[in-house]
Amino acid sequence: MNKTLQVRELETEFHTPRGVVRALHGVSFEVQDNEIVGIVGESGSGKSTVVRSITKLLMPPGKVSAGNVNFAGRNLLDLTEREMRQIRGKEIGFIAQNPFSALNPVTRIEKQFANIAKAHGVKVDASERSRALQLLESTGVRDPERVMRGYAHELSGGMAQRVVIAMALYLNPQLVIADEPTTALDLTVQRQVLDTLRRLTVESGRSMLIVTHDLGVVASYCNRVLVMYRGNIVEQGLVEDVFVRPRHPYTISLLNSVVRPEDETQFVPGDAEAPDTAEPEAPNPSTVQLSEARRS
């Protein structure tokens, strides 16, 4: 099977007044064609730093100090910002954590689709508009024509995320990177959005890299999983292998932290003080009169 993305010995540093902080320590992994890979770990483990390093969206004082990111026969780390702008959106789609931060609040959705096309040299005509409408409909947008004419603030969180997904897939990228794509959504909408994202990924034959802290998302939607801890990938493999037979202590702890309905309730030892059930004292009349006199 061909490799869509191959990351080797990726190291990222943050230069601070107190010195250099290494955020990624020789991270290596790959994403095969038609594969969905999940990166899981707690906050601060380096998940988002990985995807921002790969796409060269890392903001100062962050800096990639070593490694290779092979995509479509090119090392992305060797490309200029101008060359990367042509890859982002067209060959690599990106779905941000907060859909409203990814949408322009003062530009109609239709215009934002047109801007994506223009940025990559695609002629904006009736056929392209029709394709955008079809894509919005396929992501579960009920009235795509109305949404196209509207603004971001008129959308619910779930609807805004569907629009962002449609924009990420608009130019048919080979790889989609989703950074915590459903964090701001309620559980029901999360499931609907992820179902849609997986369906569109599988139907088109593209690959996807999902960043999440939710083990349930990985179990339900991913083929393989990378477990991150303190800037390192401590374990990786097929989801069923890692979840059933975890080897690293951190992976075991992560899996044990998941609440299961069948688990026996654990109680904290000790005695709790009884709540104070005494009736509250009536206010002193003289105090009330004094307060009223001060207000007047």
From TrEMBL:
Record domain ABC transporter: where: 5-255
SUPFAM superfamilies xrefs: P-loop containing nucleoside triphosphate hydrolases
Location(s) in or outside the cell: Cell membrane
InterPro entries per UniProt: AAA+_ATPase, ABC_Ni/Peptide_Import, ABC_transporter-like_ATP-bd, ABC_transporter-like_CS, Oligopep_ABC_C, P-loop_NTPase
Transmembrane segments: none
GO biological process, one term: peptide transport
Keyword Ubl conjugation included in the entry's annotation: no
Bilayer disposition of the protein: Peripheral membrane protein
Record keyword ATP-binding present: yes
Keywords: ATP-binding, Cell inner membrane, Cell membrane, Membrane, Nucleotide-binding, Translocase, Transport
Gene3D superfamilies: P-loop containing nucleotide triphosphate hydrolases
Annotated family: Belongs to the ABC transporter superfamily.
Protein name, UniProt field: ABC-type dipeptide/oligopeptide/nickel transport system ATPase component
Record organism: Arthrobacter bambusae
Lineage: Bacteria, Bacillati, Actinomycetota, Actinomycetes, Micrococcales
